[in-house]
Write a structure and sequence with these properties.
The protein is of the alpha/beta class. The protein has three domains: 130 residues, 3-Layer(aba) Sandwich (Rossmann fold); 126 residues, NAD(P)-binding Rossmann-like Domain (Rossmann fold); 164 residues, Rossmann fold (3-Layer(aba) Sandwich), CATH 3.40.50.300. Strands 2-1-3-5-6-4 form a six-stranded mixed β-sheet, sandwiched between helices. 43% of the residues lie in helices and 19% in strands. Strand 11, helix 7 and strand 12 form a beta-alpha-beta unit.
């Protein structure tokens, strides 16, 4: 292949929506000096037979996603061993099908050797996880899926590869204990970011969690694991590495290793691009004095996002200070206004960081509001003495006006709500830069 020849690549699937593939591939090509383009080809099922052969003849390389990873195989001249093992194709070159998902997953270095592994789901991603867990030397594997027939089919497929220590679990199986859990379901993916793949299952994980979802870069499932101090990683690196592997297949003459530092930096930009394309709302919660405004402002600056202080927005809307609202209208009216302003801010189209009031998430129905508006909650946890020391006798905080005993009772009563809504719990008594870094790292926005 001529080094400077203009090359044409693309992604086949339907529907494709706001795929990240063009962004990733175009930048990899720019870094490596590969002239060309990468486009989306959303073919409808009824168009596949007539249009796919034309694409295969005209493109230098093709990626393939849902729903064509299996149905594309009859149009090819053959499959590489990786695609044959997975029974699916995600990359095509020279009319040969490949699958780079395993390469992407392996690059994430999930601790699997000698571990008991629980895989959530029984679809294509779960199949990759299962076979890679076998290859990595997992001690035992269990498949937990909503459809028992699919789970059992996956078990039999894995056994056909010579691995016997695998079983399918029904949702009624009771508590599930494992060393490592791999989420191969789409539950928790944008835009339904508050979904949990094992919400109704008692799942105890000892060492690590991997979530194949990359949008958002950290799901609730992942954040909760990180909050427990468990090794946890999302699917962003897998996405990037499988794309890079495809480029290596398409461009075997290119020395990608020579561009390793530039490609590593590209992964950091990818995390920001995910946030730009799929704007989640980051809601900071916690008791008064937990640092929501300070941390929120610094976090928003680090992410180059708008910052909203809910109390300030309420004052602007009401044209009164918060003490004046309490005094003239009462707490019930304030809470109603707080809820209305909170909802209005969450409905803004762009991603943002929002510092909620100390009592915002205590109100009923907040889970529905958060879910409908693609919000994730970061709970800034501080002790009561720290909170009181920070706010002192702040006259702008009506809830402090009843005395220390009442403040302590309020702190104790609200804490369960903070805990229940928390997708990520962050100790917030330390250095501001460290707190922001911890949040950034949890969402994989660092680097």
């Amino acid at each position: 292949m001529q080094r400077n020849r203009y090359r044409r690549f693309g992604l086949l699937g339907y529907p494709l929506g706001h795929s990240l593939s063009p962004w990733i591939h175009q930048r990899i090509m720019e870094i490596a000096g590969i002239p060309g383009e990468y486009k989306l080809y959303p073919l409808k099922p009824e168009e596949l037979a007539s249009d796919l052969p034309k694409l295969l003849a005209s493109l230098d390389g093709l990626n393939c996603t849902i729903p064509y990873k299996e149905s594309i195989i009859p149009y090819l001249q053959g499959c590489a061993p990786c695609a044959a093992a997975y029974g699916a194709v995600n990359t095509v070159h020279g009319r040969v099908g490949y699958n780079t998902d395993g390469i992407g997953f392996a690059a994430c270095e999930v601790p699997l050797k000698g571990r008991s592994v629980c895989i959530l789901g029984a679809g294509g991603v779960a199949r990759v996880f299962a076979l890679e867990a076998v290859r990595a030397g997992a001690r035992e594997i269990s498949i937990l899926a909503r459809t028992p027939q699919r789970a059992e089919a996956l078990v039999q497929d894995v056994k056909a590869h010579g691995y016997s220590n695998i079983l399918a679990l029904g949702l009624e199986a009771g508590p599930v204990n494992c060393d490592v859990c791999l989420n191969g379901t789409p539950v928790g993916m944008w835009p339904k970011v508050r979904g949990l793949p094992a919400e109704n299952q008692e799942l105890k994980v000892g060492e690590g969690v991997f979530d194949g979802i990359y949008n958002p870069t950290a799901t609730r499932f992942l954040l909760q694991a990180k909050g427990q101090g468990i090794w946890a990683k999302g699917g962003l690196q897998m996405l990037f590495e499988q794309a890079l592997a495809a480029q290596k297949i398409w461009n075997p003459e290119v020395d990608f290793q020579a561009w390793s530092s530039e490609l590593a930096a590209l992964k950091g930009g990818l995390a920001r691009e995910v946030l730009r394309q799929s704007p989640i709302k980051l809601v900071l919660s916690g008791f008064m004095g937990s640092g929501k405004s300070t941390v929120g402002s610094a976090l928003a600056k680090a992410l180059a996002l708008p910052f909203v202080d809910l109390d300030e927005s309420i004052v602007e809307v009401a044209d009164q200070t918060i003490p004046e609202i309490f005094q003239t209208q009462g707490e019930a009216s304030f809470r109603k206004l707080e809820r209305e302003v909170f909802l209005a801010e969450l409905k803004r189209p762009e991603a943002l960081v929002l510092a909620a009031g100390g009592g915002t998430l205590v109100q009923e129905g907040m889970e529905d509001i958060l879910g409908e508006n693609r919000a994730l909650v970061i709970y800034l946890d501080v002790s009561l003495p720290t909170a009181i020391k920070r706010v002192g006798h702040d006259q702008g905080r009506p809830m402090l006006g009843s005395g220390l005993a009442e403040t302590e009772a309020l702190y104790v009563s609200r804490r369960p709500s903070y805990e229940s809504y928390a997708d990520l719990k962050v100790p917030a008594e330390g250095d501001l830069a460290q707190i922001v870094h911890q949040i950034m790292s949890a969402f994989e926005w660092h680097g």
